[in-house]
Amino acid sequence: MKPPGERFDRLDALRGCAIVWMAAFHFCFDLNHFGLWDPRQFFTRDPFWTTQRTGIVTMFIFCAGLAQAVALRGEVAWPRLDRRFWRRWSQVAGCAVLVSAGSALMFPQSWIAFGVLHGIAVMLVLLRLLAPLGTWLLPLAGLAIALPHFARHAVFDAPWLSWTGLPLRKPFTEDYVPVLPWIGVMLLGFLAGRWLLAHRRVALAGAVPAAVKPLAVLGRFSLSFYMLHQPVFIGGLMGGRQLGWW
Q1: Dihedral through CA 212, CA 216, CA 221, CA 226, nearest 10?
Q2: pTM
């Protein structure tokens, strides 16, 4: 069991690294969007950017799996019995709704219907329901990652089914993180977290150097930072343009 007051600083710091990477990526995207990057970048097809985006999402979702292993602490807790889980889940889901609304204002033709927060909200519930499967989670994770490579079908192109991750055509949207294959990444994070807690607990809960502590602090407020950083970036760039700074 988790001792009272114990902090998983190394897990928080890993999440903090993902946040910093994401913020840098989004700032570059915003500079490009406002025409402040020359030559213009192509974030949706240039491997330099698409690979980074995949890496950032992988880190976030893997960390979410690690965090669920810590939350369960070796026990199986069904979501309906876990008030802390539902409280945190409601925050993620509520923020996902805000992201959809905000993106619809800024990108009406490519608004975010099922982005990273939407995906995490759904996958967190699925992970809690699947947790009792134990070692069966490993082949299930592999199947989830593999399915989009051979099980896609045109029926999933419908907007209400694209969240599965099996459409033939990727939706035209600013962010898209479907359940498949990403639930596989979350399951792998969960399994890794279980193993580390049992055999190498210090890898998650050990102290971090003083220089890394700001990342650990940032990682504890990842959702708040996620929701605030883009309005700050966009507002700053738009304000600077109005003032004639660029």
Answers
A1: 50
A2: 0.92
